[in-house]
């Protein structure tokens, strides 16, 4: 029997829990050469900014063991070009789209959100809180619960009520749970984690930093344990808040791990660079894994690893299936 | 005129032959789907390290040759630069390789039979032979200028001598051909053969020099750039370089999908590795937004 893979992001139903991670699927058309984007739960765009951005200089990428560092610098065409070309392209194809937004000030996020309110085809808005905060001398919003909550509250206040606002959290904080709680209190309908932690590598031939920007975001399987920990902690504290889990998901087993920790949606990022078909493969592997473990619904697996020791899933499922 | 991009495919290829060519390695891989879609200038993105590898990014190689054998083979040439290419160099016949391709925009070809100078630096010349094939089929005259630091790093000298009307070789140490660089001899070759167009592939510094020469002669120059890529399919945004568009605006464009072939004079070689202040969306250009 096929597993019911439907999941919910707030009240938005997704046909399955697989999405792309922000910044890893460009505008969507690049991946559409390989597969029908309608087959994944949602496509998350790169972070859209108000004005066009040229990003950081090259080299922008360095491969690290089981990961990579990137310093792209939110390169993109700006919100006008996005609304004119990219979003309609996705909407025409009925791709459920999570629009990631990035800004330097609260006002910029709010203005972006306002631009998106009338745009058709926005399934959810993901607020990238890891952009440097100009108002606070270059610190990132995500490092501070109050600053994050301010951005979220402002975006929530202008966003259409039926479009969930998702706060994207960074693991580079002392207490991810308190930032998560602040965002939810500020009006976030869901949380996504983790954004890239900051890393660095040095080219030992040139004896200089590998990236032009010196530091960059670390992604790939190298950060998966960090992602599992963050999702686990936040789900334990806020069990009713939907979580988009991401961080080094290469296989269905990796996605399952994040789901067991509490994620109801799983985003695939760096894996797309290695395998353009990664989303579909991971979805298939996840479904097979769930079926092999006797699950009829994906929803039954969300956060399941939190059950107390000794509680048996088998027992619970048996009870559900009995006619008593 | 730009050719429309073809749809790339991902295939599991089987290594047919491996060989050493002086300082380089050449792998011939049975890759149906890629071979039949190939046009000169296309490249492939190859996964390295096997299924359980810790190396996540693909390595991009321009295609040197395609043959219809075994329903389609592709050959690419590379040099060992790190653990990924070292792993590739250890592949043997019947090993499998995960390839995505053909990728990128191929070389635009002239409609009329014209005289073309093909300039290759190091193993960048590998890309030029399929171009030469098609040009000759269209009745073009083809002349080669190949160069490298030393004789063992000049790729394809023999094949160039067989195919080209003339072949000029340069090495920096003088171990083969003329001592010097391709740009030292290129003006003479262009003048002698009365070239109409230049095609070039090689290191960025060479492409800059070749472009300058072609601009001097006021003839078109098509260059295939080498930028480091992670995905090859346009999603990772790591392989950008500043290129001037039809509208005169400089943009940071992806060499994997907008390139790797560009009109030489459109690439701002002096600014590669920077964000020119006048590029669209450059910091300070009205989009001030730290980070």
From TrEMBL, chain A:
Q: Which cofactor does it need?
A: FMN
All copies of the Dihydroorotate dehydrogenase catalytic domain together span 9-290
Per UniProt, which keywords does this protein have? Cytoplasm, Flavoprotein, FMN, Oxidoreductase, Pyrimidine biosynthesis
Which residues participate in substrate binding? Answer: 70-74, 128
The primary gene name is pyrD
- Family per similarity comment: Belongs to the dihydroorotate dehydrogenase family. Type 1 subfamily.
For this entry, the protein name equals: Dihydroorotate dehydrogenase
Recorded metabolic or biological pathway in which this protein acts: Pyrimidine metabolism; UMP biosynthesis via de novo pathway
- The organism is Streptosporangium brasiliense
């Amino acid at each position: 029997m096929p597993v019911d893979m439907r999941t919910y992001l707030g009240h938005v139903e997704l046909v399955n829990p697989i999405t792309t991670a922000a910044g890893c699927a460009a505008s969507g058309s690049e991946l559409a050469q390989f597969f029908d984007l309608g087959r994944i739960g949602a496509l998350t765009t790169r972070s859209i900014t108000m004005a066009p951005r040229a990003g950081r200089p090259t080299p922008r990428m360095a491969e690290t063991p089981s990961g990579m560092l990137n310093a792209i610098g939110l390169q993109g065409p700006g919100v006008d070009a996005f609304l004119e070309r990219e979003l309609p392209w996705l909407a025409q194809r009925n791709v459920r789209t999570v629009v990631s937004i990035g800004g330097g000030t609260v006002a910029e996020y709010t203005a972006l959100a306002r631009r998106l309110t009338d745009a058709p085809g926005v399934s959810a808005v993901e607020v990238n809180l890891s952009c440097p905060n100009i108002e606070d001398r270059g610190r990132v919003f995500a490092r501070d619960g109050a600053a994050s909550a301010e951005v979220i509250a402002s975006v929530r206040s202008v966003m259409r009520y039926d479009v969930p606002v998702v706060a994207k959290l960074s693991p580079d904080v002392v207490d991810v749970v308190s930032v998560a709680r602040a965002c939810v209190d500020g009006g976030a309908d869901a949380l996504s984690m983790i954004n890239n932690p900051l890393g660095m590598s040095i080219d030992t031939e040139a004896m200089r930093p590998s990236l032009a920007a010196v530091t960059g975001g670390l992604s790939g399987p190298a950060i998966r344990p960090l992602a599992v920990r963050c999702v686990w902690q936040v789900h334990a504290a806020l069990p009713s808040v939907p979580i988009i889990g991401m961080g080094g998901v290469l296989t269905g087993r990796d996605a399952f791990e994040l789901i067991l920790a509490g994620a109801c949606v799983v985003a695939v990022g760096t894996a797309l660079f290695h395998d353009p078909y990664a989303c579909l493969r991971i979805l298939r592997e996840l479904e097979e894994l769930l079926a092999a473990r006797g699950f009829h619904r994906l929803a039954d697996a969300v956060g399941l690893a939190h059950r107390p020791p000794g509680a048996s899933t088998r027992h619970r499922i048996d009870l559900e299936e009995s006619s008593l | 005129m730009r050719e429309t991009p073809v749809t790339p495919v991902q295939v599991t290829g089987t290594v047919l032959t491996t060989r050493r060519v002086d300082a380089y390695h050449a792998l011939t891989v049975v890759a149906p789907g890629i071979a039949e879609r190939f046009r000169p200038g296309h490249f492939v993105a190859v996964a390295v390290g096997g299924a359980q590898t810790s190396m996540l990014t693909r390595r991009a190689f321009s295609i040197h040759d395609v043959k219809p054998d075994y329903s389609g083979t592709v050959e690419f040439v590379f040099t060992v630069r790190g653990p990924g290419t070292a792993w590739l160099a250890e592949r043997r016949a019947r090993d499998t390789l995960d390839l995505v391709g053909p990728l990128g925009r191929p070389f635009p070809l002239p409609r009329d039979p014209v005289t073309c100078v093909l300039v290759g630096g190091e193993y960048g010349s590998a890309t030029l032979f399929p171009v030469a094939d098609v040009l000759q089929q269209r009745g073009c005259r083809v002349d080669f200028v190949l160069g490298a630091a030393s004789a063992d790093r000049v790729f394809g000298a023999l094949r160039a001598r067989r195919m080209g009307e003339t072949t000029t070789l340069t090495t920096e140490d003088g171990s083969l051909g003329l001592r010097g660089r391709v740009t030292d001899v290129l003006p003479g070759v262009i003048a002698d053969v009365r070239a109409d167009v230049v095609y070039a592939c090689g290191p960025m510094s060479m492409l800059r020099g070749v472009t300058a020469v072609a601009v001097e002669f006021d003839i078109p120059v098509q260059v295939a750039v080498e930028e480091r890529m992670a995905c090859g399919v346009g999603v990772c945004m790591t392989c950008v370089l500043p290129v001037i568009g039809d509208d005169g605006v400089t943009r940071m464009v992806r060499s994997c999908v907008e390139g790797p072939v560009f009109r030489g004079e459109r690439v701002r070689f002096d600014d590669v590795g920077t964000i020119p202040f006048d590029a669209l969306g450059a910091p300070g250009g009205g989009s001030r937004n730290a980070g």
